[in-house]
Amino acid sequence: MAEVWNLDQLEKIGGHVTSKIGGPIVGTTEKGKAVFFDGIDDGLIVESNPLFGAPAFTIEIIFKPEFTDNPNNTEQRFLHIQNMKNENSRILIELRVTKDNRWFLDTFSKSDDAALTLYAEKYPHALGLWYHAALVYENGTLKHFVSGIEEMSGLVNYIPIEEGHTSLGMRINHVSWFKGAIRTVKMSQSAIAPSEFLSL
Which of 37, 43, 85, 168 is at 20 to 30 A from 62, Cα to Cα? Predict the structure, then answer.
């Protein structure tokens, strides 16, 4: 089972009600329509967790990170799923902006006392381009990929998130704002091979 969210409007995403924070806008890009976030106070909360109860998962996101001159904008948590009744049940896909204006992926899973961070500082990428990022979990192993290439993996005891919402462009508590565009999010209740990932 999988849900694909094409970010071509703000009122609903994937048929789910959204809450708009700040002023994200829908724009047309060379890749089609996408939602643009200003890195200051723009975000969306989708009232859905497509990974509800799934013991394995794949999260894919097609996005374009942009240059930011905001010194408080080096940690950008641009996809966050959380059980709204338990802050210790969450998944995040984040990026870090480096001093030389590049970025690297930082992914995180927390299930009660079990947590894992995959901090890929050895894999920097250029800003201003489109990327595909994926976070995959199955049988105790969490992996993340950028544009189909595995960068990091680790072991963690993931407990399925039973309820929750999803934030885009920010952490779910309205901090760590993303500067750039998000075009597509896909969430699958199974571990997907890189050969099956969404194409850029």
Answer: 85
Reported as a single tens digit per residue, the pLDDT across 143-166 is: 999 999 999 999 999 999 998 999
What is the CATH topology of the domain spanning 2-196?
Jelly Rolls (2.60.120)
- The count of other CB atoms within 10 Å of the CB of residue 66 is 17
Q: What is the largest CA-CA distance in the chain?
A: 43
Q: Where are the domains of the chain?
A: 2-196
Identify the bridge partners of residue 167 per DSSP, sorted by sequence position: 45, 80
pTM of this prediction? Answer: 0.97
- What is the distance between the alpha carbons of residues 161 and 175, in angstroms, rounded to a whole number? 22
CA 46 to centroid of chain Cα atoms: 13
Dihedral sign computed on CA atoms, order 128, 57, 25, 37: negative
Name residue, tokens 């590049």: 102
C-alpha R_g of the chain: 15
Give the list of residues 6+ apart from residue 185 with CB closer than 8 angstroms, or none. 4, 5, 7, 59, 60, 61, 62, 79, 166, 168
Give the residues across from 180 on adjacent strands: 37, 65
